[in-house]
Every structure is written in structure tokens, then in C-alpha cells.
Amino acid sequence: MVKHIAVGLDGSANAATAQRLSIGLAGRMGGVVHGVHVIDATFLEGAFITDISGSMGFEPFLNLQSQMRATLDDVAEAIRADFTERCASAGVEGHFHLERAGVAHGVLTASKMADLLVVGQRGVNARFHEEALGATAETLLRRSVVPVLVAPSKAELPARPLAAYDSSPKAVRALQQAAELARALALGLTVAVVDLQEERGRARLSEAEGYLAPYEVRAEYTFVRGEAVEQELLALLGPDRNDLVFLGAHGHRRIVELVLGSTSQYLARRSPVPVWCVTRA
């Protein structure tokens, strides 16, 4: 059961959605939200300040470092105040964590005791890289020891979750977490298997059905014949269809993933709904 939810906050639209989802889930599940903001240490390092100072025509470290630090502190305070107010309005316990480090490292450090890490699909520079998964989100998917929920710019609390299943250990763990969420929120659950071989695919559906039986959740089981797993799953997702997807961060195709990227990265980048990635079995 998810009780401690860490959420990355950077002031972006995606982070605002991540914050809203985190507070909503915590409210429904009786949990605690940990808002995490990181002041990127690279902005205050000597080489960066020297380059900026030189381009502006004055001596490095004269005033720029202190001014930049003050500006970043002001941004952090605004984010903290907004987070605190929203938690209080929702009646949810919230704790704000301010880290001064590299962004990914700071988020990972602050979330190490969490049950779930929620981040935006893209960060504050999303308008310059509209098709790319945020660099921080991608790093967290690879390095986080807790599940990562990647939120797009628009999303609501789930009503129709879907679990993608391929019988890998992480997919089993994702199925467990999907069942726990569905039971906690009194939701139905769709389980989808994508496979070229129907016999194998339906065997996996039967395996998933047997696993879910003790959870007593309302479940539907869908087999999709296909090879492009990420594209077939994407077709099942949308605000009016399945509005949250659970999956293992890596499945059986590790060599393909090393070359082309994983299904989880593809969906985290393109999904119109939140993607719950189980990063450890």
C-alpha cells in the first residue's frame, strides 16, 4: 500500500499535475506527500558563473552568484508556499524538502524512503523539447529504486487503470501495485497482454487472472495480437479510455531496449495519461 508519496516540483505545468495527482492519491489512500524541490547546484558552480559573468562584461563572482542564489531561493519559497497551501486545502499531510544538488540526485535522495515517486513528463524547458521525455524524468526511470509515476501536463485521478502484463518479475510487481490501487480506490482494472502468439498471450492472461483472484478486484482481460508492444498499449490509453497504465520498467527484450529504448520510456514520453513504472521487482 502506498503511504509515502514523493513528488518532484520545479514550477512547470507537468509538475503542477504531478503535485495534484500526488495530493489526490494521498487523500484517497490516507498517505503523506513529500514535495521535493532541488536547487540545481550547477547554476552556482564556478565555471557556469564565470561564463555568464564574462558574457555580461563584469568580473565573475562580483554580484552574480549571490543574486542568482537569492533568485533561486525565492523560486523555492514560492513553490514551497504553493505546495503547503494545496496540501492544507486538501486536508493531506505534506512535508517540503529542499535539496541543493544535481536535480536527479537531489530527487533520488529525498525520495529514498517513499513508496512512490511522482514526476512530470517534462520539466520547465518542455517548450523547447516538446517530443522529448524530460532528462530528469528519464534518469529517474533508470535509477529510482521506488516506482515512478510519470504525469503528463493534464491528468486527473484514475478511474479506469490498466496493467500491462508480460509475466516478467517487474510486470508481476506492477500487477500487484495495480491491484492494490484498484482495491483502495474501489476501481475496476483492465489487464492487457500484447503478443504475436495468441496461445502464449492467453496463457499469460490466465496467469494474471490467477494472481489477481485473492485481491477481489473487478478485472477485465484483454489480449492484443501484435509485436509493437508500446504502440499497441498506447492505442488503449486516453482520458476517455484507460486513464492510468502500470507496467514494469523493463521486460524481456533487454537487447532491443539497449538499442531502441524500453516500452516504459516510450510510453512515459508519449502517453496522454500517467504511466506508473515499476523499476525494481
Question: What tags apply to this protein structure?
Answer:
single chain, 281 residues, alpha/beta, Rossmann fold, 2 domains, 10-stranded mixed β-sheet, 10 helices, 21% strand, elongated
Uncertain segments of ≥5 residues (pLDDT<50)?
126-133, 255-261
Please identify, by name, the CATH architecture of the largest domain: 3-Layer(aba) Sandwich
Number of helical segments with 4 or more residues: 10
Beta fraction: 15-25%
Strand order, biggest sheet?
Answer: 3-2-1-4-5-10-9-6-7-8
CATH structural class of the largest domain: Alpha Beta
Q: What is the general shape? A: elongated
Question: What's the gyration radius in Å?
Answer: 20 Å
Number of domains: 2
What structural category do the secondary elements indicate?
A: alpha/beta
Q: Superfamily at the CATH H level of the largest domain?
A: HUPs
Which percent range fits the helix content?
40-55%
Order of helices and strands: EHEHHEHEHEEHEHEHEHHE
Number of strands: 10
Largest sheet: 10 strands, mixed
Mean pLDDT: 86
